[in-house]
Amino acid sequence: MDTRSKIVGSDRVAELAAQGAQIASGHFDPLISSFAEELAAIKQKHPEAPLVVLIRSSQNPILPARARAELVAALAVVDYVSDAESNVEPSYPLETEHEHKLRDLIAQVHGRQNAHNQGSQL
After folding, report:
1. In this structure, are residues 92 and 42 in contact, taking their beta carbons and an 8 Å threshold?
2. For the chain, is the Cβ count within 10 Å smaller at the N or the C terminus?
3. Could you give the number of structural domains in the chain?
4. Strand 22-26 to strand 80-82: parallel, antiparallel, or no bridges (unpaired)?
5. Which of 62, 61, 59, 75 is nearest to 24 (CA)?
6. Cβ contacts of residue 66 below 8 Å, gap of 6+?
7. Interior CA angle at 96 toward 95 and 101, to 5°?
8. Residue 104: inside a domain
9. How far apart are CA 43 and CA 39, in angstroms?
């Protein structure tokens, strides 16, 4: 199955929301395992409802929204993804959490780089 077929426009998101879909939103930039685990937990809470993920823009994206949508669509627990702007309010807004985790990830990478650089200077 080509998972890109899970990527839908804002009109379809509105239809799915009206039918009871669970809507999650976030940056997913980069897509890390804890984000996939969050989506799996949402799906587990509502196994009968489709899980729709809205890809939100971020200030300095690592990947374009379409690439992030394709990565999220590849997750088995996700039924639909939209990288289009939508007026639908998400049941699970994850943007703030994603921003915190990205900052933590960047700090961890910088810490490792600094440790490596200091070790190579000895």
Report:
1. yes
2. C
3. 1
4. unpaired
5. 75
6. 83
7. 95
8. no
9. 6
Contacts of 83 (CB under 8 A, 6+ apart): 7, 55, 65, 66, 68, 69
Domain membership flag for residue 112: no
* Span 19-72, pLDDT tens digits: 999 999 999 999 999 999 999 999 999 999 999 999 999 888 999 999 999 999
Domain range enclosing 89: 3-95
Q: Is position 70 within any domain?
A: yes
Residue 23's Cβ-side half-sphere holds a number of Cα atoms within 13 Å equal to 22
- Find the CATH number of the domain harbouring 50: 3.40.50.620
DSSP reduced 3-state for 90: coil
- Specify the pTM: 0.86
What gap in Å lies between CA 48 and CA 51, rounded to an integer? Answer: 9
